[in-house]
Each structure stands twice: as structure tokens, then as C-alpha cells.
Amino acid sequence: MVRVIEGDTAFGRFGETSDIAAVLAFLASDEGRWVTAQVIEASGGYKL
Q1: Does some domain include residue 41?
Q2: Is residue 44 in a domain?
Q3: What is d(CA 3, CA 35) in angstroms, rounded to the nearest whole number?
Q4: HSE on the CB side for 30, CA within 13 Å?
Q5: Is residue 43 part of a domain?
Q6: pLDDT tier at 46 (50, 70, 90 boundaries)?
């Protein structure tokens, strides 16, 4: 089952805590200040 799910992602692997943390850090930083009212999918391209 793991291989099937990993095969459905653009990166070919499950996400790690650091992958999600990087997205959150960007959104919380000054660099993400113009991002408003968006749905941000941090899924590694699952089922693209």
C-alpha cells in the first residue's frame, strides 16, 4: 500500500514533518505576507 501511495505523488515519497514545517514557516514569514485567503495543499503532488 505504501508503494502505491508513494507512486501517486509527484516526489515519489511520503511527506516528512520538515516538508510541512517549511510551508508553514514561509506562510508565517514576511515573505508570505501577500498570501491571503488561499487553500494551500501541501501534499507533494498527491494524485496530480
Answers
A1: no
A2: no
A3: 34
A4: 0
A5: no
A6: confident
**Domain count for the chain:** 1
Please give the Cα distance from 6 to 37 (Å, whole number). Answer: 29
**Residue 8, domain member (yes or no):** yes
Q: Which domain holds residue 18?
A: 2-32
Query: Which DSSP string corresponds to the chain?
Result: -HHHHHHTSTTSS---HHHHHHHHHHHHSGGGTT--S-----SSSTT-
User: pTM of the prediction?
Assistant: 0.68
φ, ψ dihedrals at 40, nearest 5°: -110, 115
